[in-house]
Amino acid sequence: MIGGDRMRFDTVRLATGPRLHWAEQGDPDGEAVLFLHGWPDSWFSFSRVLSLLPAHLRALAVDQRGFGDSDRPASGYGIPDLAADAVAFLDALAVGRATLVGHSFGSFVARHVAIEWPERVARVVLVGTGFSGTNPVVRDLQASLRDLPDPVPVEFAREFQASTAYCPLPPEFFERIVTESLKLPPRLWGEMIDRLREYDDTDRLSTIAAPTLLLWGDKDALFSRAEQDRFLAALPSASIKVYEETGHCPNWERPELVASDIVAFVRGA
After folding, report:
1. Residues with Cβ < 8 Å from 53, sequence gap 6 or more?
2. What share of the chain has pLDDT > 90, as a percent?
3. From CA 145, how far away is CA 176, in angstroms rounded?
């Protein structure tokens, strides 16, 4: 691995095919927490949270296939494919069980892992999730991607990413977010959202056995409070933490609170 004392970076070839780039922080023998980023992001989406986690946790943040510095195969971009990658990643690192933290698009991946591989999931934290990926906002986003130029215009990426946050962000952090999003090939911007809209786990949410926590900003422009309530109705054992004056990306906007809530949840507090 390469990197500094706290953050280490590596790549690994998965049994499912692609080579994934990933970041690791903390005790290699500590309790594992796997972070699954949103669209069109990378591991860096969780960087502000990772820097605040205690050293005794083993924090693992991947670039999912197609994103960041991971491989971009010709196919395999459905939510079930990405969930299989997540399990294969745990296999490759010999991690038996992990807490899964998924943001937005990545929250649907985390949900699928929890549904299909419950024995691999200790807990689930869903940041900015929705009841489903088929709401009007996602539908409008899908339509806006139909004629997306190649290369993707920097201003398009910047405007989209800015629209997802409500709190002001550090300029250097935000510009890195934009840079990371532009690593996603133009052909995959629309395909990923197509695959999200095809995915429907709403009739299986009640089968999630792992303790589940929703982290949601009350200014989220993508997924409403009504969607959080529908999720909670489907899985009554889940709980929710609401961040006031916060948009769709609490992991960007309120990293101190997100890190604290993840740590408390892992501890069972």
Report:
1. 25, 26, 33, 59, 259, 262, 263
2. 97
3. 22
Q: Comparing C-alpha atoms, which of 120, 106, 33 is closest to residue 66?
A: 106
251-267 pLDDT, tens digit each: 999 999 999 999 999 99
Token pair of 269, please? Answer: 């507090």
CATH number at residue 216: 3.40.50.1820
Query: Distance between CA atoms of 166 and 160, rounded to whole angstroms?
Result: 12
> Can you give the residue range of the structural domain that contains 24?
2-267
Dihedral sign for Cα 244, 102, 135, 187, please. Answer: positive
Domain count, the chain: 1
Cα separation of 236 and 136, whole Å? Answer: 25
According to DSSP, residue 182 is labeled: T
- Structure confidence at residue 6 (pLDDT): 82
Quick one: 66 exposed, middle or buried, by C-beta within 10 A (0-12, 13-18, 19+)?
A: buried
* Cα separation, 67 vs 182, whole angstroms: 9
The pLDDT value recorded for residue 173 is 98
Asked if 101 and 127 touch (Cβ cutoff 8 Å), the reply is yes
Q: What is the pLDDT of residues 198-234, one digit of tens each?
A: 999 999 999 999 999 999 999 999 999 999 999 999 9
Orientation of helix 186-198 relative to helix 105-116, angle to 10°? 50
35 forms bridges with which residues in the sheet? 61, 101
Given a contact cutoff of 8 angstroms between Cβ atoms, the answer to whether 14 and 85 are in contact is yes
Beta strands in 37-115, from DSSP E residues, in sequence order:
57-62, 98-103
